[in-house]
Amino acid sequence: MLKIEGISKRFGGLVAVNQVSLAVKEGEIFGLIGPNGAGKTTFFNMLTGIYKPNEGTIVFEQQQVQGVKPFRIAKLGISRTFQNIRLLKDESVLENVMVGMFGKTHTGLWSAILGLGSAKKEEELVKEESRKILELVGLAGLEDELAGSLSYGNQRRVEIARALVSKPKLLLLDEPTAGMNADETNEIGELIRKIRKNGTTVILIEHNVGWVMGLCDRIAVFDHGEKIADDEPEKIIANPAVIEAYIGKEDTEEVNKFAAN
Ligand SMILES: Nc1ncnc2c1ncn2[C@@H]1O[C@H](COP(=O)(O)OP(=O)(O)OP(=O)(O)O)[C@@H](O)[C@H]1O
Ligand SMILES: [Mg+2]
């Protein structure tokens, strides 16, 4: 579904992502791990058109998308959440989710402004779809609350709902469980499995190694902008280069903890 070959992103003299190649199959839950500053978010930013790679190609369903504008990539069916929650905190939960359909609706701006029938009807459809997605992510009943009044964990769910409402083929989650407790984290795992079952392929960035091992079909490890491993979870956990990069070879207690995961 997604085939990336040799993409790099440089910021001045800093090489944030260095010639990374990677392939994701339809229906996979694919994990991306690595230390802080390894280039994971930058990689997502290239996949979603926020950054144009300095070199390399990104092919999504037979189409080259490197350097393509974000809204066009969204239209092709790639959707994402952000590492830092980006909600309209003073708007309702429902409105925050409806925003995710912007760009996908067909009615023109003028009919929306003039309140013509087709725009009204379309808004109703978007509302209905947004409610369904809110139910899927476990937020039924909270539609009319202000997004900013929800718990941190639930705000992350709103972000996921907003990314899902356009029915993406590929969903990119940047640290979906950051700041969550163990129970909330496990619930997000269940939600991601449900999303995959509904036909969406998932790539997720995560720091919680134990959790990601149990969830993903395949995991790539980034370190200093390079992909140092790409394998099934059991093989990743046994890879010395990964342990060294991710934990630091000197701290044996940490290495043991990592291996125990
Ligand atoms: N717009 C930018 N301008 C300059 N440098 C940047 C920019 N975006 C990212 N970087 C740098 O690129 C490197 C990779 O950053 P990135 O955010 O991709 O890492 P990450 O793996 O997502 O880290 P974390 O786990 O902390 O989120 C870092 O050194 C970062 O400071
Ligand atoms: Mg990041």
UniProtKB/TrEMBL annotation:
Keywords: ATP-binding, Nucleotide-binding, Transport
Coiled coil: none
Keyword Metal-binding: no
Gene3D superfamilies with a match to the protein in the record: P-loop containing nucleotide triphosphate hydrolases (3.40.50.300)
GO molecular function: ATP binding; ATP hydrolysis activity; L-isoleucine transmembrane transporter activity; L-phenylalanine transmembrane transporter activity; L-valine transmembrane transporter activity
Residue span, ABC transporter domain: 2-249
UniProt xrefs under InterPro entries: AAA+_ATPase, ABC_AA/LPS_Transport, ABC_transporter-like_ATP-bd, ABC_transporter-like_CS, BCA_ABC_TP_C, P-loop_NTPase
GO CC terms in record: plasma membrane
Pfam families to which the protein is assigned, alphabetical: ABC_tran, BCA_ABC_TP_C
Name by which UniProt lists this protein: Amino acid ABC transporter ATP-binding protein
Species, as recorded: Neobacillus vireti LMG 21834
